[in-house]
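Hello again,

I reread your note about wanting to compare the complex against the isolated chains. To keep things tidy I'm splitting this into two emails, and this first one only covers the full assembly. Below are the input lines as submitted, including protein chains and any nucleic acid or small-molecule components. They are followed by the predicted structure of everything together. The single-chain runs will come separately.
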Amino acid sequence: MTKAAAKEKKEKKSGSPAAAGPRKLEVKHLTRVEGHGNIIVKLDAKNHVQDCRWEIVEAPRFFEAMVQGRPYEDIHHIVSRICGICSIGHQLCSIQATEDAFGFNASEQTLELRKLALHAENLQSHLLHIGYLVLPDLLGVDSVLPLAQTHREELLNLVACRRVANEFSRLICGRTTHPQRLIPGGMEKIPTRAELQELQSKLEGSLSRMDRIVDLFAALADKWPDFKRPTEYVALVSPSEYALYSGEIGSSSDINRPASLYRQVTNEYCVPQSTAKWAKNTGESYMVGALARFNLNHRLLKPGARQAAQKLGLKAPEHNPYLNTVAQLVECVHSTEDSLEIIAGLLARGLKHETPPTIRVKAGKGVGAVEVPRGILIHSYEYSDEGRIISADCVIPTNQNHGNIQMDMDALKPMLSGLEPEAIELKLSMLVRGYDPCISCSTHLLDVSGTPARKLVKFVRV
Amino acid sequence: MPAKPKVAFFDFAGCEGDQLQVANLEERLLDLASHIDIVRFREIKSIKQDNYDIAFVEGSITRPEDEPRIREIRDRATILVALGACATIGGINCLKNFLSESEYRATVYGQFSRWYSTYAARPLSAVVRVDMDIHGCPVDRDEFARAVKELLLGKIYSPPDYPVCVECKMAGNICRYEQGKLCLGIVTRAGCKACCVSEGSVCWGCRGPAPDANMDAAGQIMDSHGFSWLDAQDHLRLYFGFNSRL
Ligand code: SF4
Ligand code: SF4
Ligand code: SF4
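Full-complex prediction:
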């Protein structure tokens, strides 16, 4: 890919004039995704696709450099600003890495609350994606807003589910975006018994609402492009549960590895067409996200979620990347069911007020890995003995998917050839959108220098 | 301003958390959408139009090629609103301004850093005229709704000019300094109802300095509670980094 892109750049420079035939189709700043990405397609006179390219043009933000030299107490606060939609996941992953570096184990209750936080975020984000970002494509409109007239009942049902998901996030984490309660060591504040009970009944209400969303999407099943491309699927796996908060890194074509060995899987590299890095493992690319999780962990879904999958016609292994959205819907049902179980457990045992224990700071390295809505997220930190970051590495789901998106596009080419440009554009946009890319977070560091003499950053006075 | 103004959303370097807060208005967004004409909102809408009266802009300016884009937005809009800390005060992105550019480039992209363009992060107002600020990281949904309402009435919303402590006391919190923690509520602009303190945390300063913040007095408070300049600097650089000597 690198070579091809470089070659093309050269061609551009040498100014080979575009003949009358070939045309370029440019989707600049793809809409209904988070962040800035472009789809560039070259067509010949007969609308045959010569080349399509997925480019990331987001401004690089340098988070891994920004945290250098910072004390451990604010790392989770800073990194949550990598992504507004996955801010809870980034915080939890960061906290895991920090606790791992200092050899700290959080309490049972804290772990349960963190699992709830992750479910809440999954619900928030998935419902946004399913309802606001993807559904308009299936119904042939440009945004969710006109659905207020044409599909009012369905829309209000979706919005109501999403409102519960937001309230859920707020109740556990303090705020829906960039929450304040999650910290290394424990929780700054916990919900009350009465609040949890209220949440319980709201989530039960959501379950029946979700049934209706499942019916809606089951009825739209023929709207998905019929396209399959088997690839490697990577997600956290655990023998005991549908892994989200903890587990090993699993793959559909490789052994399981502990999170600390993530670099053996992610193998990141730079390509000139993108400010985000790409990743590959056993094949040319791999996929992370709801579909990867479903393919690897479907046996551990809660019963309602399994029923939903059946209704939606989703069966593992599923190789159609467009159906990632459908897998997200199945996960919404699962997250709701699992949350209800966790809440019941917390209520039965009684909520304890635990003041977060002091963390004993020491030099060390730690890795955190959690499943966020768009796939597996990894943070890896090295701390100095004052508890300040020496180096950080964050491997973000969308980065891991970029290569796979490009390979899907390449495989789609024959299917697209000859179609009207609008149809080509829509199919490609839907593909990328299906991955639910979070591009604003996808720009980031990997310490590629490999030099051992890494030291604390000297602050430069301005 | 027409009775049903055309509204557009734009983003530069940021996390899109502020636009998400707007989407998170849920039913209220549908309500709002009946009073304005949303002509451009990449996060939720495909069709884009280039004529708009109000532009909400999220994110910081972090590379030279952002400048012509924000200038064009400025030229087209009657009212330009900076949305969220990245846009109003440079936000968390300014943390990198304390590192040397060659260092942060190399840390993140190694030998490939020449492929990517970047310079010190700055707020929108460092490049173009801004008519209205909605502060916060992220913005507060209620405040956003209120600001839009005022715009519809032909007014410019002006955020509170007193510090977060005022709201913190109204919320009935125990002061974090009493608990041995460093809190920036004493110098930060209010408007969030001290939500972080109320949720158990401290104020990190995301709404930027209050217009008449007395930094010397703040220093004395931190000093008398045993905090060092390094502790203070750690906090101040999170959001007060642009244009202040920290
Ligand atoms: S101000 Fe905060 S919430 Fe808004 S874009 Fe910047 S980092 Fe995200
Ligand atoms: S906790 Fe912070 S915001 Fe509240 S009164 Fe104390 S210093 Fe002010
Ligand atoms: S309490 Fe401080 S950090 Fe929190 S929202 Fe308010 S101004 Fe921002």
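For quick reference: The longest helix of chain A spans residues 108-139.

B.
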